[in-house]
From TrEMBL:
Organism of this sequence: Ruthia magnifica subsp. Calyptogena magnifica
Record-linked InterPro entries: Asn_synth_AEB (IPR006426), Asn_synthase (IPR001962), ASN_synthetase/amidase (IPR051786), AsnB_N (IPR033738), Asparagine_synth (IPR017535), GATase_2_dom (IPR017932), Ntn_hydrolases_N (IPR029055), Rhodanese-like_dom (IPR001763)
Protein name: asparagine synthase (glutamine-hydrolyzing)
GO molecular function: asparagine synthase (glutamine-hydrolyzing) activity; ATP binding
Pfam family, one: Asn_synthase
């Protein structure tokens, strides 16, 4: 798990090592253990390492294999690297390290660009092939590891976050397509767009091959289907298969490390199930970590009532942190400065503060992201299924944060354009190999939306403290299986029926299994009042915001006056969504 950056120049200029060092400073928190720089005329790589597998210098990056003429920088973990190493050794390859990094090099040399189909893990990597005189870049199937780029006639520049690319004098103007999606899909801007025109991001399950002259070839190497399997399975067989795949997913994430691993325990079903599966597999003294905040009125600021039960039942080594609301605002700017893109979910700050504490004890954690999207855990799925109208209407009513008409009221005339969110949804729903409307919803959610909401959020906030988060529920084999399960079976028992049945077999408390779906609570950013209201009002009425000219100040005044009247379909604060976007722009673009 690391941070990477680099540049391939197409003109006569030599890559500047000094500029790479500037980029490396912006990714340094992702890899605090060591750094590396490599420049060869028109190509250069920078790397910040978080040492997880093979802690020795043999695994240092950029990794250079002189015999094969390959140079690699890599962010992530390959869970099947040991099996691949054995296979490649039989093919005559000799290894100088014990890292998964070197396995990627040999795999690329042996299989070429199809090497990605052999890799089981989360990854973003870049290989300079000196013999072919080309750059090969890949992102994992689920998009767990980020990779951003800027492409001009002069150069292809890339990095693990947008902040590194912003240092390169790129176009920082607002992307109107991304702006509408940002404000419609609660912070999600699907790849390849980002909120600014000068930065794109590589799509999940995608590779890019860039020649020394600037020709770019994009390939998609994984397209999951949401259809019923040819082999008819009973409900019990579906549950059993889910149990097997989830157990395998958890264990391979535990085994691929040379450092201890813990669990972020929220108190919900998903993270509690991870703890239970570890104990079922024989792991003792599992380390768990929880965070909570102050209550606001009837809104509870922690889930300790539930996480404490899991700690007691499975006897984990537990750390619990309580954060007062008075600590949120002073630390908010830090969290926002570590967001590679604007992230409106209120739990982003919570993950940032939790990761700060957890990183003092451990370097790798398991987290429960993806379970709700894969196994139907959200309340809006049932509402979508019952809704009448077209597929887009059924989805939009229960997911999209603001109607197209309200979006036009929210932003100034220059950002009025077509309904890009609706166009994108039409494109996703029109993809082949989905049996029903709900199959389309689940596939879109788990393969596209989750990438740029909870997954990106957890990666950014944990890696800000040099902490690697692994997400077992987003194992691609488990996702392929989950998409093959009929929506009706997943949605039984108010959702996550399969996971609940597994949990009962592992003797999780009924109070945890049957509780109402919870969310990482931070009431102060949901029910905006007091100093938080003053702060958000100040951001949105500041001279920077007015001069930027994105938001219609007349409409902004209405929301500031009655923020409680402007909640989203998913119970988020529209005021916070607008304030966060402007705050992110002020911190990361203006400054």
């Amino acid at each position: 798990m690391c941070g990477l950056c680099g540049q391939l120049r197409f003109d006569s200029q030599v890559v500047s090592g000094d500029e790479l060092k500037v980029m490396m400073q912006k990714i340094a928190r992702r890899g605090p253990d060591s750094s590396g720089l490599w420049v060869d005329d028109n190509i250069g790589f920078g790397h910040q390492r978080l040492a997880i597998i093979d802690l020795s210098n043999h695994a240092h990056q950029p990794m250079i294999d002189k015999n094969l003429g390959l140079i690699l920088i890599f962010n992530g973990t390959i869970y099947n690297y040991q099996a691949l190493r054995q296979d490649l050794t039989k093919q005559g390859y000799q290894f100088f390290s014990h890292s998964d990094t070197e396995v990627i090099i040999k795999a690329y040399h042996y299989w070429g660009e199809s090497c990605v189909t052999h890799l089981d893990g989360m990854f973003a990597f870049c290989i300079w092939d000196k013999i072919q005189n080309q750059l090969f870049i890949a992102r994992d199937r689920m998009g767990i590891k980020p990779l951003y780029f800027n492409l001009t006639n002069q150069a292809f520049s890339f990095a693990s976050n947008m902040q590194a690319l912003i240092t390169q004098g790129i176009d920082k103007s607002i992307n109107p397509i991304a702006l509408q999606q940002q404000l419609s899909l609660h912070g999600v801007v699907p790849a390849p767009n980002t909120i600014i025109n000068g930065v794109n991001k590589i799509k999940p399950a995608t590779t890019l091959t860039i020649s020394a002259k600037g020709k770019v070839v994009e390939r998609t190497y994984w397209k999951p289907k949401a259809i019923r399997p040819k082999e008819t399975l009973t409900d019990e067989q579906f549950i059993q298969r889910t149990h097997e795949l989830l157990t395998d997913s958890v264990l391979k994430r535990m085994n691929a490390a040379d450092v201890p691993i813990g669990v972020l325990l929220s108190g919900g079903l998903d993270s509690s199930l991870l703890v239970a599966l570890l104990r079922e597999a024989g792991h003792e003294n599992v380390r768990t970590f929880s965070i909570g905040f102050e209550n606001i009125d009837d809104e509870v600021g922690s889930e300790f009532e539930y996480s404490d039960q899991i700690v007691a039942q499975f006897k984990t080594r537990h750390e619990k942190y309580v954060i007062s609301n008075s600590q949120v605002l002073p630390r908010l700017g830090e969290a926002v400065s570590n967001m590679s893109e604007p992230m409106v979910a209120q739990d982003a700050v919570a993950f940032y503060l939790l990761s700060e504490q957890v990183s003092k004890h451990i370097k790798v954690v398991l987290s429960g992201q993806g379970a709700d999207e894969a196994f139907a855990g959200y309340f809006w799925y049932e509402r979508m299924q019952a809704q009448t109208g077209s597929e887009i209407e059924r989805f939009t009513k229960h997911y999209v944060d603001r109607s197209y008409e309200e979006y036009l009221q929210t932003v100034n005339q220059q950002y009025h354009s077509n309904n890009h969110t609706e166009t994108w949804l039409h494109y996703e729903f029109a993809k082949a190999s989905a049996d029903t409307f709900m199959d389309k919803v689940f596939r879109t959610d788990i393969t596209r939306l989750v990438v740029d909401d909870p997954v990106k959020r957890v990666d950014n906030m944990t890696m800000a403290w040099g902490l690697e988060a692994r997400v077992p529920f987003m194992d691609y084999k488990l996702i392929e299986h989950a998409l093959s399960v009929s929506p009706s079976l997943k949605m039984l028992n108010k959702g996550k029926h399969l996971l609940k049945q597994i949990a009962r077999g592992l003797l999780l408390p009924d109070s945890v299994i049957d509780r109402k779906k919870g969310y990482f609570p931070m009431p102060a950013l949901k029910y905006v009042r007091g100093e938080f209201l003053d702060f958000m009002s100040g951001i949105l009425t500041s001279s920077k915001c007015i001069n930027r000219g994105v938001f219609n100040q007349t409409f902004i005044a209405k929301i500031i006056n009655k923020p409680q009247n402007y909640m989203t379909a998913l119970n988020g604060s529209r005021l916070w969504h607008l304030a966060l976007l402007e705050y992110w722009l002020q911190i990361n673009i203006d400054e």
